[in-house]
Amino acid sequence: MGQRYPELSADHIQFIAAQKLFFVGTATDTSRVNVSPKGMDALRVLNSQRVCWLNVTGSGNETAAHVATHPRMTLMFCAFEGKPMILRLYGTATVHHRGDPTWEQLAASFPALPGVRQIFDLTIDLVQTSCGMAVPYFDYQGERELLNQWATKKGEDGIRAYWAEKNQRSLDDLPTGIVEKSERD
Fold first, then answer.
1. Domain spans of the chain?
2. What DSSP assignment string belongs to 156-172?
3. Pyridoxamine 5'-phosphate oxidase N-terminal domain: which residues (predicted)?
4. Which CATH number fits domain 3-133+144-176: 3.40.50.920, 3.30.70.240, 2.30.110.10, 2.120.10.30?
5. 3-35 per-position pLDDT tens digit
6. What's the mean per-residue pLDDT of the chain?
7. Global pTM?
8. Helix (H, G, I), strand (E, B), or coil: what is residue 29?
9. pLDDT tens profile 132-147
10. Contact partners, residue 36, CB within 8 Å, separation at least 6
11. β-pairing, 43-47 with 50-56?
């Protein structure tokens, strides 16, 4: 049933490309575990041992705080249609902010979305599949545009103000670096 691999295969990459949703898990040694659902065509496979995903502004910024302290990250994909499978990518993440030397090159791989906050870059050290036979079927009906509409309405200055108010500290009061690092651009 479950299999382990040192890197992504062509079949894994094809499976990832077909998914509309993935989950990100992070934690420090002492923090709460954070699991966040992600969509919006925001993930790119760069090679068999590296993926990046674009993070837009949200109500919290746990992932950035966790990665700054303890860079381990897990991404999970589930088949909600077709053959059952769960695919997990384990590795070490780096966070890229606007103004970082790597930003422009990585951001060019993604759609221009309002409220873009960071890009997370995962170096994979383990790929694991499991059966997924208990994952239910779901029908994809389309993307929600609410977050894009909210960020567009706020505008760039409004987003930065939101970061200062809501995205600087994690639930466990860890710094996220969002304001300091975004001031460089």
1. 3-133+144-176
2. HHHHHHHHHHHSSB-TT
3. 14-130
4. 2.30.110.10
5. 999 999 999 999 999 999 999 999 999 999 999
6. 94
7. 0.94
8. coil
9. 999 999 999 999 999 9
10. 23, 24, 58, 62, 63
11. antiparallel
Residues 6+ apart with CB under 8 A from 59: 166
Using DSSP's 3-state secondary structure scheme, residue 181 falls into: helix
Q: What is residue 8's DSSP assignment?
A: -
**Which is nearest to 158 in space by CA: 115, 125, 120, 117?**
115
3 state DSSP class of 67: helix
- Is the pLDDT assigned to residue 179 strictly greater than 80? yes
CA distance 65 to 74: 15
Query: Which residues on neighbouring strands pair with residue 25, listed in sequence order?
Result: 35, 74
Q: Which of 168, 113, 185 is nearest to 177 (CA)?
A: 168
